[in-house]
Amino acid sequence: MRAMLLISGRRIMSESRDAWIALNLLTDLWPALRARLVEACDGPEGVLNGGRDRLRSVPGLRTDIINKIDMFDWKSSVCIELERAREHGFTVLTPADPSYPAKLLEIHDPPPALYVYGELLPADDRAIAVVGSRRASFYGLECAREFGRDLAAQGLTVVSGLALGADAAAHQGALEAGGRTLAVLGSGLDVLYPRRNRKLLEQVAKHGAVLSEFPLGTRPLPHHFPQRNRVIAGLSLGTVVVEATARSGSLVTARLSVEYHREVFAIPGRITSERSMGTNYLIRAGHARLVQRAADVLEELPRPAAGIEAPPLSDPPDPPALPEQEATVLSCIGTDEPVPVDALAGASRMEMGSLLDALLSLEMRRLITVLPGARYLRRGPGS
């Protein structure tokens, strides 16, 4: 589709680009119907300018949608949308743009428009999705962060959905490694969801990009997230499912990865945990390869094509300063001998409730490890 647009010349390319954006503004068109329309009408301009008779020839197209397309003042609407995007500092890519992700063009219903906050690089074609539960366990969060960090350290771009839980942990892991990460939203780029990930969003935009196919102002409605998941799967060479219930949206991403002929990996979990029912099912049914470390994923991926280099890793961001109580507790824990919790209580002179809170926070920051018998050990560099 892009080759045809490039051959058509500069003026036609510009018109086509606006037509793709206009098609994306028609939010009543779900992806599969939109793709069918583009094919039936020989491109986005044919959809917008073909008239009612041509639209009526497309099977399954409702009369109200035909009327909406026929009456749509798409050129002025596109001008307004592009101006709003410019004011926010966003760029908008379409299949007519050379910088539109090549991997997305391989799926049958690529987004007509992709809003970008940050920068996409050619090396982002070597990307891996890491997805999982919003209510991930500590084990799930650790796995997502570790895989995100280790995959990014190998020059792969980590793709996820910026959701709470496993998604956020995967992004954070990639950032810790100084690598690249892409976040795909289920809302417009100007409507952050969840709000508490604002700081993480800015970090992702600085070390990768935040993406959305939804027009500006679009709220995060439930049916947007399965639609968003096809973009996550489409951008990636494969998908790692960290932790998922039997009805998790992560399983949708895994199914789409299979549909797009991409790899699917799953991290096994406890057989008694509902959070692991989805991942364990993927492995048992043969839909996913069992992986325990990032190296297992790398073994299954094609080698980079000649001339394609991974982007250089940036310096990992400085860790935030610890609160006073956490710093006090950490100073009492060494890397050689585990320290029992009662000994920590005496050394830190803290009440048990405050001590346990500080220990949990340090564990979440991956600064300490808890061992059997409520004993604690400081993690070494890179562990």
Question: In order across it, which strands form the biggest sheet?
Answer: 1-2-6-5-4-3-7-8-9
* Gyration radius, rounded: 23 Å
Order of secondary-structure elements: HHHHHHHEEEHEHEHEHEHEHEHHEHHEE
- From the N-terminal CA to the C-terminal CA, the straight-line distance is 46 Å
CATH fold node name of the largest domain: Rossmann fold
Structural notes for this entry:
The protein is of the alpha/beta class and 383 residues long. It is 45% helix and 12% strand. Helix 8 (138-153) packs parallel to helix 9 (166-176) and helix 15 (324-331) packs across helix 17 (352-364). The longest helix has 16 residues, at 10-25.
Topology:
Elements: H1 2-7, H2 10-25, H3 31-40, H4 44-49, H5 51-56, H6 63-71, H7 74-88, E1 91-93, E2 114-118, E3 127-131, H8 138-153, E4 157-160, H9 166-176, E5 181-184, H10 198-206, E6 208-212, H11 224-235, E7 238-241, H12 249-259, E8 263-266, H13 277-284, E9 289-290, H14 294-300, H15 324-331, E10 339-340, H16 341-348, H17 352-364, E11 368-371, E12 375-378
Parallel strand pairs: 3-4, 3-7, 4-5, 5-6, 7-8, 8-9
Antiparallel strand pairs: 1-2, 2-6, 10-12, 11-12
Helix pairs in contact: 2-7, 8-9, 8-14, 11-12, 15-17
Offer a few descriptive terms.
383 residues, alpha/beta, Rossmann fold, Arc Repressor Mutant, subunit A, 3 domains, nine-stranded mixed beta sheet, three-stranded antiparallel beta sheet, 17 helices, elongated, disordered N terminus
Brief rundown of the structure:
The protein folds into 3 domains: 2-87; 117-300, Rossmann fold (3-Layer(aba) Sandwich); 324-378, Winged helix-like DNA-binding domain superfamily/Winged helix DNA-binding domain (Arc Repressor Mutant, subunit A), CATH 1.10.10.
